[in-house]
Design a protein that fits this description.
Blueprint lengths: L1 H10 L6 H5 L4 H15 L3 H15 L2 E2 L4 E2 L4 E2 L6 E2 L4 E2 L4 E2 L4 E3 L3 H4 L11 E2 L4 E2 L4 E3 L3 E2 L4 E2 L4 E2 L8 E2 L21
Helix pairs in contact: 3-4
Length: about 180
Amino acid sequence: MLEDVDTTLARDPSIATRTEAVFHSTLPAVWIHRVAHRLYRRQHRIGARALTSVARMLTGVEIHPGAEIGRRLFIDHGTGVVVGETAVIGDDVTIYQQVTLGAIGWWRDNLRSSGDRRHPRVGDRVTLGVNATVLGPLEVGDDAMIGAHALVLGDVGPGSRIMAEPVVARVRKQAGAARSDSA
């Protein structure tokens, strides 16, 4: 737990002290997951699910109790983070809000053999940017960075940088927009 607190202090510039880090909004999700994962591995699936439901209500982070997470996971602004049952997350990974480590979908997953991995395996020191979506039993290599809004459906090599195409927003005038509100 102290390692998680120190990681939060090191990676979140808005946190000034260990005491403040203890109250970071996503730490309860990580800590509750660690307990739920132990219960899940001991076949106490209902208790594990109950704990992760509490974590989701408190933090907005949904980590399936079957997922394996490494040391010093840092989730910054965790609302909307989803980690699937067979996902594996390495050490020193940073996850931003609205990231999904998910399966492709039941229509494909039901064709897999029982026990096959359906979710991504994320290496060490990986950064997953805002709203990144990583789907399927793929590998994300160590030191990779998945940028904001990227959709990843295939393996990512170690040290790779995956970026979504930027969309340039344009302001368009609507008919009647030049109208004055004065009488």
